[in-house]
Structures
1.
Amino acid sequence: MAYVITAACVADYSCVEICPVDCISPGPDETGFEEAEQMYIDPRRCIDCAACVEACPVLAIFEDDCLPATMRHYAEINREYFGERSA
Amino acid sequence: MTPDRILRIAVIGTGPAGMYATEHLIEDRNLNVEVDLFERLPTPWGLIRGGVAPDHPEKKLIVERLFDYFFKHGCVRYFGNVEVGVHVQPRELARWYDAVIYAVGASDDVRLGIPGEGLPGSVSAREFVAWYNGDPDFSHLDVDLSHPRAVVVGNGNVALDVARILTAPVADLEKTDITDHALRALKASAVKEVVILGRRGISQAAYHNPELEEIGHLDGVTVVVEGDDASPPNVDWATRRKLETLRELSAQSTRAAERRIVFRFLCSPVEMLGEHKVEQLRVVQNTLEPVSNGTLQARPTGKRLFIDTGLVMRSIGYRGTPIPGLPFDDALGVVRHIEGRICDDQGAVLGNYVTGWIKRGPRGIIGTNKKCARDTLRCLIEDLQAGRLTPAELRSTEVLQEIKARQPEAVLRPGWLRLDHAERTAGRAQGRPRVKFTEREEQLTLAAEG
């Protein structure tokens, strides 16, 4: 289980600031922030605390088994961003 | 730092750049601030209200979930319908406040620079967006949707927004806060095809993945890809995803659809032709050529073709316009600055700052402006600590008197709240988030007391 950032993300990075385990990228001081289409959550490090859900100003973050139908593939997209390929 | 000194700051512009600057000022516990927000329109929120597509209501949530909190904060005032350069000059603001932050965005766009561009039927996507989103200055734009084909030049996210609005089922748009005049025009629209031109190849497309995916969610719209089907081996992850999405979209395009969106790559406009209005767009096919910085540049071949159309929209970038009295970099279309401190030939114009698109050019998405504002405010705070800010000459009540004297029709916070309420109430009756009032006079009447 993990939380997933979906297409509505505007790269506001309130989620990055509030995440207690620092599992959301790219933050404002990481390379790639200026060009980022969105932020991503590392599912291997996410502890399911849901702090990011309420911090997100556009409600773009969902639990992976509660993703809206058109956003299901974002679980994979979040995972892929961190270089992990699931089979 | 002197925490008991009240810092009086003017923020010019209430889009994401201005509101993120306000957020950082209010949230800094070492500062004791009073912020006055100046806005050229009676209505706040800049491109959140005037740019974000009406079918993207989730992006507009940022107003009620974030910006509204700072807008309504006790240390913040709103001066809407007040234009810097018209009602008040930058040199005056510099005296009235401890510091001034310009967050005015990019209010112009890049021209194609081809013959025929001045013909009726040639407009900018920026104007079209302002028209369907209710900027009172563009309510009367003449948008001719009588030809079955429209062409959008450029393939960034704005181009995709425009293509989506032109092809989306009107029944879907009727649930949004798109303007009523746009809704009427789109109901009567003859447009069946939108061609999106990209000068470079399929791997260099400027749109983002989420916006491309959305094209696939449009009922009755099929996607066609022309001009480039190369699948280059060494593309980055985001580009590879875009290639896959586009491939999926065009593979679905078998059913007979009411409307189509054509992505045409490697193609540049050369001339708009027509007697009294645009009837044809002449384009040239390009090839890609590596240049010294490692990127690929479009180079025209001799191959030309003609596209019949009645509407050509340029969407090749926004551009900042000069603010009277402030140094401007004409090549970049931004106010001259170093790390957000406005600078002229003599150095920093102390106490004057920029943030957002007027600082870094029209790049990035909504949240990109948060970091941009943070960085600018670091300079401001450094200047404050070093004693480089001249204290404000006017008290806040004196500024209010000046504003009211210079612009009797200034819209203050209660005025906007009345107008906002009127729009939401009108929307509720129709099952829409709001119905926008798009005439300035009408907006001012609704904002006025009573």
Note: The CA atoms of residues 404 and 433 of chain B lie 32 Å apart.
2.
Amino acid sequence: MLSEIAFYGALETGLIYGLVAFGIYISFRVLDFPDLTVDGSFPLGAAVAAMLIMAGWNPWLATGMAIVAGMAAGAVTALLNVKLNILNLLASILTMIALYSVNLRIMGRPNVALLGEDTVLTPWYELGLEFHQVPVLLFVIVALVVLVLLWRFMKSETGLAMRATGANPRMARAQGIATGAMIVLGVALSNGLVGLAGALFAQSQGAADVTMGVGVIVIGLASLIGGEAVLTPSTVVRALFACIIGAIVYRLAIAFALNADALGLQAQDLNLITAVLVTLAIVLPGVRTKLTHRFSRKQA
Amino acid sequence: MISATDLKLTFGKGTPLENPALRGMSLTVNQGEFVTVIGSNGAGKSTFLNALAGEVMVDSGKIVVDNQDVTRLPTHKRANRVARVFQDPLAGTCENLSIEENLALAIKRGQRRGLTSAVKKQYMKQFSDSLSSLNLGLENRLGDKMGLLSGGQRQAVSLLMASLTPSSILLLDEHTAALDPKTARFVLELTEHIIATQQLTALMVTHSMKQALEVGNRTVMLHQGQVVFDIAGKERDGLEVKDLLGLFEKQRGLQVDDDSLLLG
């Protein structure tokens, strides 16, 4: 079975990936903009936060700058698409590739350790909680604050305009919405959240690494799709909760799979398990509908 | 007032599929006029409407709305003056937003959008009043998703959305063509009612000659990207479809070969 530490560890990472899932919800679901920039903006956030903390910045300010950096990366992707008419998916791949170099430049080396540095978590360790519970508490608060802010935003005039841009761009333009500007704003917002996730991840793991972004998009998508399978996203607030729940369920599933000795799985099987889980998350809702159909027909 | 002068537009210029859609189209619509636009397939009706809305940019010519030259402005910068209802009932609304959210989008057409809540309490009375004028019971379903409504209901709501805020011109692009005859009649009557009560200036493209003569107070026929005739007032009263055909043949020395124009 799962040890208590492994359980809290899964919660902690799950909450961080919940922020990534928020970002992916904005790009993939709200804007219908398949954005792979996140594989670059996640380590970008980590690198910016880590370097600024090493330079003596306040960790929250450093985290704030990581958000700004992520937003800038997202804006580049969106502008490549909107202004230069590059296909959205390709534009995001270009930015992602470019960010690999940028991240190496920012850190000056492939990885940076934050051992002994003050992070956003430091003051929370003095609350007298168990060591492994502290990050979970802080990240629950961060995730809920972001959730409420995003929910309010999606209900605002600008947020509604953004949702219309993704759902029906022709109608949005006819209503006077500058759809290009909405795409730039949305993709920037999305990657800002991913930058935040990267910054928090670096601080909770004690290091930033240039390769830490590999596969973030898949994990984020797995969380999003898995969450949607658990909690039907009929409203914005449900969709946002689905992101967090999906990310936590995903991390717990991974932790169980790796901890269950009977399965004989090891850490290097992580990506294989991820692919299987994503496939299940995509296929299962369809199977469920089919089963309920069959069931209700029998009753009728 | 809206005036289009000598609009020219060719699609796919320099390719084997080169297609001149507008070939010097000129039309002036005065305040309060309700113009019906007729023409066979490929006459340039939809392209003309798209050019007025800003969805396509003309190669040359000039479009002026209320003394402002909008020729080079994109759609969203004309939206404060130009309202529009599309042919496809699904195109004018967002199916995964609620009815009230769709109306909230429309009430800010062409205005700045901020960070305050989109669906405001003070809009509610206006929303439910205008919805109840449709007699579809939609005023009790403000929170329902747009996708739950039928095509006719969605087109009726699109029409409301287009008339929620003032505009210099209302563009209707065969907006009843995709509906069944009964619903089409309902939407057309609603159109006439809204245009009459709000004294809107409107341009309605239609595929049916009969409809073009029954509705509105001026009829324009397009052919090969130009206006071939333009009738209003006494001259138009009492005109029938066959007269319209005669007029067209006299003007052009052509036979109308598009059956749908005759049958519609």
Note: Chain B has two domains: 2-81+167-263, 96-166.
